[in-house]
Write the structure tokens for this entry.
Amino acid sequence: MTTSPALPTALAEIVNDFKELEERDRLTLLLEFSRSLPPLPERLANHPELLEQVVECQSPLFLTVEAEKTETGEVIRLFFQAPPEAPTTRGFASVLFEGLDGLTAEEILAVPDDMPEQLGLTRAISPLRMRGMSAMLGRVKRKIAGGVRPAV
Amino acid sequence: MPVAVETNEKFAAYAHPERLVSTEWLAAALADGAASNGNLVVVESDEDVLLYETGHIPGAVKIDWHTDLNDDVTRDYIDGKAFALLAAAKGISRDTTVVVYGDKSNWWAAYALWVFTLFGHEDVRLLDGGRDKWIAEGREFTTDATAVTPAADYPVVERDDAPIRAYKDDVLAHLGKPLIDVRSTEEYTGERTHMPAYPQEGTLRGGHIPTAASIPWARAADSDGTYRSREELEALYLDEAGLVAGDEVIAYCRIGERSSHTWFALKYLLGFENVRNYDGSWTEWGNAVRVPIAVGADRGELPTS
């Protein structure tokens, strides 16, 4: 059996929270995540051209990443937007936001691509829908690998 | 005991008005307590598996197209035993009137209705306009969990696929008779193999089944998500697609969901007796070895040999 590299602490905790639940309750937890996805800051909400759409998601999802300088070095900030009628997509975005926002580029790039599978949701929501979340993570990593725009 | 059918001017023009209910009718039926004795069960079926949890018609139950209706191993629908368990768990008896509604002009609701019909459930109707119309009209909506009284019994009925479901071989045998391709124009021409802004589902070839007419499914729906009038539907499917009364028709899309919406319009609203939904659709045809494919905007010709 191959073991995946360790996840960043916040994301590992989220994965554990999901895993500890019964399958049905994992859906409820995903719904709670969907409610806590923060709205875009005004400077981005008014500039949709700064976001890109992840077309692999079933519902419209837009995201962008920014680099932010802190006292301890540069970190990555994540921004997601998805409509309220797409709670599953919002839930995925919210998991990635809470698990990865504020980490370094290296930490995010080290997250294994199969991380969404570890949530144990595949059977409850179907493999097709899980692909949307993998695509979201993939896009975040590709954007970071391709060079990140500093915050304006 | 089935619930009395709705009569109104719009529905009366359709071949089978008993297959639709309006939002007014459903609100009145619910207010009258039709759902309190098992005679009427309202089912929500959406694209997003969590949408129901964000709010639903009071008393409605959820049925998910992926996780409830599809077999989780074979690419097929659940069997009679699983369907009986599902129905009973949702409070549905064999003689219950089931009203299905959902998001996106009832796209997935029509799919659920089609699967209910595979099992010969007699009285299953669509809420014209679906979830969005109900919400737009400011009707009662809740996040309260529905307390379901499971039905005492739902018989194990084996699926009868042949009348309304076509397999790939059926489509090959059907070639020469009318086909309706309900996908977007870009999918029909072969420019893309999946819906704009939707997941790529791994189709190797683009295009359409030769001779199929292109009538994207959403053209059957009005801006409020209700079905268009009989007259408008006739303009679409008779005048534009060229169907004539008595035709045997097969509708298809990518996995059979959008074409369920068109199947419903052809069968119940226009009264074509022999309409089948090819659920293998483009994800099967576009990957199958040596089946004919036409590309571009023209319907294309059947191979001569």
